[in-house]
Design brief:
It is a single chain. Helices cover about 30% and strands about 30% of the residues. With about 210 residues, the chain is an alpha/beta fold. The radius of gyration is 17 Å and the shape is globular. The protein binds fe (ii) ion (FE2).
């Protein structure tokens, strides 16, 4: 299995390239903002990209879709209602050669947010970052995200966490590490505490020396 995290420009965005070494079939996740950086990796590994996944509908994750679709002929895959060539539901599985991808609906940051599990990797988009979680605007959205995060942390602790932005102290993490260090994840037993941290995050960061 080929698994590459790519610095994709913009606001420290990450794109992902995941391929099957045997068949050379591959998928990408969030080919944005600069899809040419991803294209170089696709060419380097001589991969045939058949799917373009979007973790959610924000333009800094979807903006490179058309460029990459024209370059590769791949199908755009979104959560249902997202307008992709292929729309998936919670629990859907797609394959590229021997590599499989499971979609987990994790609404909150956006209603169409998904995480993608492939091998021992979890691509978390803007739902879970290293040491942080996705932004929400309302208490209702925060509550929805709270339940999505509870679902994620029930996954095996050795699962690697690959976020949509490089906002943390490292480019990737694990479920275990997030349980041990992410202050939002540590507040998943109590929604009021989770919400308090969201509402006081700026001050909390200063107090705890978090950048
Ligand atoms: Fe986003």
């Amino acid at each position: 299995m080929i698994f590459k995290q790519i610095n994709s420009g913009g606001d420290r965005n990450y794109a992902y390239l995941i391929g099957c070494e045997n068949t050379k079939l591959a998928a990408v996740a969030d080919p944005s903002p600069d899809p040419t950086l991803l294209m170089k990796e696709i060419e380097k590994y001589e991969l045939d990209v058949i799917y373009i996944f979007n973790t959610h509908s924000h333009p800094d994750h979807t903006g490179g879709n058309d460029y990459l679709k024209k370059s590769t002929g791949a199908k755009i895959v979104t959560f249902k209602g997202g307008g992709g060539d292929l729309e998936v539901s919670d629990g859907a599985v797609l394959n590229a050669g021997k590599v499989s991808f499971e979609f987990i609906h994790t609404p909150g940051h956006t209603q169409d947010s998904v995480c993608i599990k492939t091998g021992d990797n979890l691509i978390t988009g803007d739902t879970l970052f290293v040491g942080k979680v996705g932004g929400t605007y309302t208490e209702e959205e925060a509550k929805v995200e709270f339940h999505s995060l509870k679902k994620l942390i029930s996954f095996p602790e050795n699962l690697k966490v690959w976020p949509g932005h490089n906002y943390g102290t490292a480019p990737s993490s694990t479920i275990l590490n997030e349980k041990q260090t992410n202050p939002f994840i540590q507040r998943l037993n109590d929604f009021n505490e989770f919400l308090w941290l969201k509402q006081n995050w700026a001050a909390y960061k200063v107090e705890h020396g978090i950048k």
